[in-house]
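Entry:
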Amino acid sequence: MNEQMHWDIEDDIEAIEGYCVRCKETVEIEDPQPVWTRRGMPATRGTCPDCGGTVFRMGKTDAHEMQNRPEAVQVAGNNRARLAQDTAYIVFAEQDAALAEQIADDLQKIGIASWLHENSDNTNWAGGVHPALKECNRMVVLLSPHSAAHEQVMAAWQFFKEKGKRIAIAQLAPISPPDAIRRSPRFDFTGDYKTAFRQMVAALSE
C-alpha cells in the first residue's frame, strides 16, 4: 500500500472500538488499519491509546472496500502440504477469535508457525480427527467461559492429551481449567500480554 492510499484510508475510516486485553476494556483503536487474516477474514488492527498495546478486532469496515480481499491460506484439504511438527495448534471458541488471531500473528513474527482451529469446520469429532491435530505437536488452549464447555475445543485438547503432546493454556478469564489439563502450564493473558506471551513461548519451546 503506498503512502497516499494509507492516508486516504486513514482519513476515511471512522472511529473503531476494540477490546484491549491489557487494559481489560473497550477503547477507541488508534491508527486503525484494515487487514485480512490468513483465513481471508476482514479485521482491524491498531494501537490502544492508553497502554500502547496492539488491539485486534474482527469484522469488516468501510476501509476494507478499498482493498482487494486476498485468497484465504489453504492449509487443510486433500492436496495440502503437511504441517511442520513444531506448528502450534491454537484452539479457541469463536468469541475469542480476535485474540487467537493476535497470538497467531505474534507467533508468526518470531518464526513459530501456527494453525488456527476451525470453529466452522463440520468435522465429526466423535468419529474423526482433523489432520492438523495429528500433525502439530504443541497446542495453545485459549481458556475462557466460552471455550471451557465448547465441545470441539474439548475434543481437540483431549486428543492432544491422549497423545501426550505439549499443551499450554492462555488464560483469558479467572476460571479453572478442566481437571484433565489442570497441570498444563498456564499464562495469564488478562494482565500483561507481552509477559504472558513471552512466558508461553518459552514453555512451548522446552
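Residues 97-109 form the longest helix (13 residues).
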